[in-house]
Design brief:
Elements lengths: L1 H16 L11 H13 L3 H11 L8 H16 L3 E7 L8 E14 L3 E2 L2 E3 L10 E7 L5 H4 L10 E3 L19 H7 L26 H4 L6 H14 L19 H11 L4 E4 L24 E4 L1 H12 L5 E12 L4 E7 L4 E11 L9 H21 L5 E8 L7 H11 E3 L24 E3 L6 E6 L7 E5 L7 H8 L9 E3 L8 H5 L5 E6 L4 H5 L12 H20 L26
Parallel strand pairs: 5-6, 6-7, 7-8, 11-12, 11-15, 15-18, 16-17
Antiparallel strand pairs: 1-10, 2-3, 2-9, 4-8, 5-9, 10-12, 13-14, 16-18
Helix pairs in contact: 2-11, 2-16, 3-11, 11-16
Length: about 600
């Protein structure tokens, strides 16, 4: 037995040691130190964040501000000496037949008491054509049979679409950083099973039941909060938190919401009002780019506090009157594009190292954490590389993508235009999933490579808010683990320590990973991303952490430098390990 035990121990030691094997990466520490000094001591990242988040925001895809922001970005890239800087139009409009902006919003309760109602219109819904006023009514019915009881009773009224939600207190601090034991668990292929009466480290509590960084980053979800939000939605007869009732996901998944909206429209409703159970003045926004303005009502999302006050009054049979003046503007055939620019390499200039983030935002705030901070981190990384003058053998390219929130559209367009496409399986429609480029949302046919495919090295992405980078998701590409371990060593003092074999989904690295190319997302501290900022009216510059922003740009610059100067391109994972998952969009709804 003792002999068998030693053999087992030896095999365990070998398994643990394998990812630590040196690869002799021949790191030029002098150059890496230049990058760290420039990024951490001479950073411009917060000034760039202010310009992008305070001046050129929000940047809903297809809006005039998205194009203005792109012009500003291109000006900065050219100022720093990048070449081939341009906006690349999408070859496929992907349903963006009209752009949209909210130009004015006023809403107030005028009886039984006067109070303002802060809120935001759902994207691509119409305005009110001036000041209008009407009584409010609470309608939680979802089926045609139940809705029929309201026939002839809703004309000229505002419809509150769900019961007043119960709002949990902030029992724990909303902001979170990864603890050492949580990072250690992430290094395991699968998380340890819970033991009776014990919550495993890393199972964080108190997060809303929506797509969370914990879920996106491979950590356990928060079961108590998820159950609470699901219960509230069920009690109210409402869609899940964060999906306003007026709009339905593109692709025809509206179901009962479409029945309700059409009933309200034909009955002459003034508009619909919904909320989310976050409370604390926070609400979540979305929108459906395919909504027909002629067949759509004004749809407003407001905070739970004002919503609950009115809903509870209505439940007491106390009349409530609401007035509003909302101006929304549509823009036919807007520009839809990606932004690219290069720092040219030397002897391997035809090989590409790509760093990127999504440029588009939602519109209830300025999109600072989702994802202005990612876009700025990539811009700052390019500035650092130019300012330090470090030699780059491969070309380093920045890519900022529009349409990520509607299904990774911009990065998918880049992959299909430059690198590869997949023909869909005959008879199978692309469901608009969030993994892969050029039809990768559909069942997968053969990969059709383009000439640039074999010259593409790696893609690095940031899209989890303001949190410091703590490591990398390997996406099942075990061969890069020993390489990345060596690359992380110069940045260990900045908190970069962890590799996990787990996949993460829901953002633009999937467009590359789905095409069989090395595409990676960084592990990030959550900070307030899930609790406060993700797709909410609180996603502003004030939510950013300056040192974290400097750290992420510095590490991205370092990784781009190391990839650009490696003798060989990074290894690709076997075809059998390709991740074709649809990520956080698999369940539909705005992301």
């Amino acid at each position: 037995m003792k002999r068998n035990h030693l053999c087992a121990l030896a095999s365990v030691v070998f398994f643990v040691a394998l990812p630590l094997l040196a690869t002799n990466e021949n790191i030029n520490y002098e150059d890496v130190n230049k990058i760290i000094v420039e990024g951490m001591q001479h950073s411009q990242v917060m000034d760039l964040n202010s310009w992008l988040d305070d001046v050129y925001a929000p940047r809903l895809t297809g809006s005039p501000m998205a194009e203005k922001g792109a012009q500003w970005v291109m000006g900065k890239l050219k100022e720093w000496g990048l070449v081939n800087v341009k906006m690349e139009p999408w070859t496929n409009r992907n349903g963006f037949d009209r752009g949209w902006t909210n130009d004015k919003f006023y809403m107030a309760c005028t009886s039984p008491e006067n109070f303002p109602i802060p809120g935001t219109p759902t994207a691509w819904t119409p305005g009110t054509n001036g000041l209008i006023s009407g009584e409010a009514v609470l309608v939680t019915a979802t089926t045609q049979e139940d809705l029929n009881q309201y026939k002839g009773k809703l004309k000229g009224k505002w419809v509150l679409t769900q019961a007043a939600p119960d709002v949990a207190a902030f029992w724990d601090a909303p902001a979170k950083r990864y603890k050492p034991e949580e990072l250690a668990i992430m290094e395991l292929l699968t998380p340890p099973a819970a033991e009776f009466g014990v919550t495993p480290p890393g199972a964080r509590q108190g997060a809303p039941a929506q797509v969370t960084p914990a879920a996106r980053q491979g950590a356990p979800a928060a079961p108590a909060a998820a159950q609470q939000a699901a219960l509230q939605a069920a009690r109210a007869g409402a869609p899940p938190a964060g999906v306003p009732q007026q709009q339905a996901p593109a692709g025809g998944r509206g179901g009962g919401a479409n029945i309700r909206n059409e009933f309200f429209r034909t009955e002459g409703v003034l508009g619909t009002i919904s909320t989310t159970p976050r409370g604390h003045g926070i609400y979540t926004i979305g929108g459906n780019r395919a909504a027909d303005p002629a067949a759509t009502l004004p749809a407003i999302v407001i905070a739970a506090e004002q919503y609950g006050r009115m809903a509870r009054a209505l439940a007491k049979n106390i009349p409530v009157t609401i007035e509003a003046d909302i101006k929304n503007t549509y823009y036919p055939n807007p520009a839809v594009f990606n932004i690219v620019g290069d720092i040219l390499g030397t002897d391997k200039a035809d090989e590409i190292v790509l760093i990127g983030a999504h440029f588009d935002t939602w519109h209830a705030a300025t999109g600072a954490a989702d994802n202005g901070v990612g876009s700025v981190a990539m811009m700052e990384a390019m500035r650092i590389l130019k300012a330090t003058g470090v030699k780059l053998r491969r070309t380093v390219r920045i890519g900022l993508w529009e349409g990520e929130e509607q299904g990774l559209l911009g990065s998918r367009e880049y992959v299909s235009s430059h690198l590869a496409t997949r023909k869909p399986v005959p008879g199978a429609a692309d469901a608009g999933g969030r993994g892969g480029g050029g039809g990768f949302g559909a069942p997968q046919g053969p990969l059709e490579k383009k000439p640039e495919y074999d010259k593409f090295d790696v893609y690095f992405n940031i899209d989890n808010g303001t949190g410091a980078l703590r490591g990398v998701y390997l996406q099942g590409n075990d061969a890069v683990a020993p390489i990345f371990r060596e690359w992380m060593e110069p940045f260990r003092s900045l908190g970069m320590t962890t590799l996990t074999a787990r996949n993460t989904g829901g953002t633009d690295h999937q467009s590359f990973d789905g095409a069989g190319l090395p595409g990676f997302q960084f592990i990030q501290d959550e900070i307030e991303y899930n609790a406060v900022t993700h797709h909410t009216n609180m996603d502003t510059y004030e939510r950013l952490q300056p040192r974290d922003c400097m750290q992420m740009a510095t590490i991205v610059a370092g990784f781009a430098y190391l990839a650009a100067n490696r003798d060989q391109m990074l290894p690709r994972k076997p075809a059998t390990a390709l991740s074709m998952g649809r990520g956080r969009g698999a369940g539909g709804g705005p992301q």
